[in-house]
Write a sequence for this structure.
């Protein structure tokens, strides 16, 4: 069981490693050839608007960015391959 699944099963919040999250955003941006958002977290401590726009524009998953969980991106990619709108 992954740390993510164990935390979910116990009703715990997964700790977020913001250094890792920044690295994942930069990696995604580099792979798709766009600029990464400058901020991940807004002044209200929620995901920054520029990060949300990045996800909308590129298909990046907030779950993957913040938790390293790729399941949402895998499901969406599968839906696209099957001709279903993600």
């Amino acid at each position: 069981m992954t740390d993510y699944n164990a935390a979910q099963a116990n009703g715990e919040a997964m700790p977020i490693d913001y250094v890792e999250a920044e690295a994942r955003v930069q990696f995604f941006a580099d792979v798709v050839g766009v600029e990464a958002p400058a901020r991940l977290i807004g002044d209200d401590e929620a995901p920054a608007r520029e990060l949300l726009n990045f996800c909308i524009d590129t298909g990046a998953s907030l779950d993957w960015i913040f938790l390293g969980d790729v399941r949402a991106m895998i499901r969406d990619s599968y839906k696209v391959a099957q001709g279903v709108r993600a």
